[in-house]
UniProtKB/TrEMBL annotation:
Name of this chain's protein: Glycosyltransferase family 87 protein
UniProt topology in membrane: Multi-pass membrane protein
Lineage: Bacteria, Bacillati, Actinomycetota, Actinomycetes, Kitasatosporales
Entries under InterPro entries matching the protein: GT87 (IPR018584), UCP010361 (IPR016570)
Entry keyword annotation includes Transferase: yes
Species per Swiss-Prot/TrEMBL record: Streptomyces gamaensis
Keywords: Cell membrane, Membrane, Transferase, Transmembrane, Transmembrane helix
Length: 497
């Protein structure tokens, strides 16, 4: 006899037409052996194994570069779309020479102009551990290959963590995490850089918040922000949603924990002391000064404008800041005015997507930031795949453009106009996904997660909470007269309180 838990498990191949159609390739909709408690093949394990398999395929896609593209000829790594920062920075940032990030200045002969490592502290530690684990001896090419393999192994562990955390964040919808595992842009960009480390920490934070553990969630947000700055943006949605739900103590706990965790890992590298007293270490500050000083760069809306107009847009930092402030205020107002309190994953996805859309650079691996959040915000296969198609197009576009600019008179690849179209495709794809998420917020009956009457299953302390602060129609609904024997439907949890 099936348990209640078995009966309540949501199966995308039953409720999602695209997932159902796609399942015919592997034998049809999911059956009883895929349900919890039915043998070893639980949803979480299946999702993790699929994610590992897709990661391995992504490594195979890098094979042309592993053999020769990273070392012989500048354009091969672009024409084969197999570029990775990892082998280049192993020697280019002095790891091969035994230099310590943030403390040792990089010789100009190695870095080509970068005097210190331009990554946050925990990412630098990740790179350093991989360098320590890389066997010495042999040619530089051989050591760079080995270092890429070591980093890939560590990033594979991050991939498994992301898949498991996403699958467990919503207890009744573990199969949604297959979207993470099967995302083509995820596999293609997984070993381009070290972003998966920060994404894994962020996925862990989302899981801990879904389990109503704000301390652990905050610690992981702080650690993630020490690896990549974007996870700090999650504190904004938490603040607005906790304000609306009257859960400010949970927010304060998470924010304090995040601040403490960030300081614990940054202060030892951040502060230096000499005869003149304490100072901010120049090597530690490099990430922040580099982010501030870098010009308009690849993948951004600003690059399209700059190339089309010939204006270098020296004021891009100001434009980005103003748009971020305006966008965050708009999202905050939306969260307070929406007829039902938005789910945490919805607002988290939107604020990170806003940062991606207005930032002055969009590296192809930045899509990794959004994939787990998109799955939790809008677990709809059609919309997710439309967005992924745009991201794959951009992935191919940027390498083809770099092949064009680096091939001299041969002009292999895309000219600037073609690359601009690839950027526009990325922007439109992300805007499309943002649009359907916003529609779900304004029309909660369209939200696939809430079809069964749920409120915010991955929202932790927010799940089922009554509205305390709300505006507009949400405010009027909050103060509506009881209409069913004294019970008021608050419009937040699909349940009466």
């Amino acid at each position: 006899m099936r348990s209640v838990r078995d009966e309540q498990l949501v199966r995308p191949t039953v409720e999602d037409e695209v997932a159902a159609a796609g399942s015919e390739l592997i034998g049809g909709p999911v059956g009883r052996r895929a349900l919890p408690g039915r043998g070893w093949w639980t949803p979480v394990r299946v999702v993790a194994l699929v994610a590992i398999g897709m990661f391995a395929l992504g490594m195979v896609q890098k094979l042309p570069c592993y053999d020769y593209g990273w070392f012989f000829g500048a354009t091969t790594q672009y024409t084969h779309a197999c570029y990775s920062d990892i082998p280049h920075l192993y020697s280019g940032r002095g790891f091969d020479a035994g230099l310590i990030p943030y403390f040792d200045r990089i010789p100009q002969s190695l870095s080509g102009g970068m005097d210190y490592l331009e990554y946050p502290v925990l990412t630098g530690l990740f790179m350093q551990v991989a360098a320590w684990l890389t066997p010495g001896g042999g040619t530089l090419q051989h050591r760079e290959q080995l270092n890429w393999l070591v980093n890939s192994g560590m990033l594979l562990a991050c991939t498994a963590v992301i898949a498991v955390c996403t699958a467990r964040a919503h207890r009744r919808r573990p199969w949604d995490a297959l979207l993470v595992a099967l995302a083509p842009a995820f596999a293609l960009t997984a070993t381009v850089n070290w972003d998966l480390f920060a994404v894994a920490l962020t996925a862990g934070a989302m899981l801990m918040w879904s389990r109503s553990r704000p301390v652990l969630a905050g610690v992981l947000i702080g650690l993630a922000a020490a690896a990549k700055l974007y996870p700090l943006l999650l504190l904004g949605p938490l603040f607005v949603l906790c304000l609306r739900a009257g859960r400010m103590r949970a927010f304060a706990t998470a924010a304090a924990s995040a601040t403490g965790a960030w300081l614990v890992v940054n202060l030892p590298v951040m502060i230096t002391h000499d005869a003149q007293g304490f100072h901010i270490r120049e090597g530690w500050a490099k990430f922040y000064t580099f982010s501030q000083e870098r010009p308009v760069d690849f993948g951004s809306l600003w690059l399209v404008i700059s190339q089309r107009t010939g204006d270098p847009l020296d004021g891009a930092n100001t434009y980005v800041t103003l748009l971020m402030i305006a966008g965050c205020l708009a999202l905050g107002a939306l969260a307070l005015y929406a007829p039902r309190r938005p789910r945490f994953a919805q607002l988290a996805f939107l604020v990170v997507a806003l940062f991606v859309l207005v930032n002055k650079v969009y590296s192809p691996q930045y899509v990794l930031w959004l994939v787990p959040l998109a799955v939790l915000a809008r677990p709809k296969w059609r919309d997710f795949l439309i967005w992924q198609a745009c991201e794959v197009l951009y992935f191919l576009g940027i390498w083809s453009y770099l092949a064009y600019t680096g091939s001299g008179d041969k002009h292999q690849g895309l000219p600037a106009e073609g690359y601009q179209l690839a950027i526009v495709a990325h922007l439109l794809g992300t805007l499309y996904l943002c649009g359907v998420v916003i529609r779900d917020m304004l029309k909660p009956e369209r939200d696939v997660v809430r079809r069964d009457g749920s409120d915010d299953p991955s929202g932790g302390v927010l799940d089922g909470a009554e509205d305390i602060v709300a505006l507009g129609s949400a405010h009027r609904q909050r103060h509506a007269e009881p209409s069913d024997g004294g019970r008021v439907h608050w419009g937040t949890g699909g349940r009466a309180h």
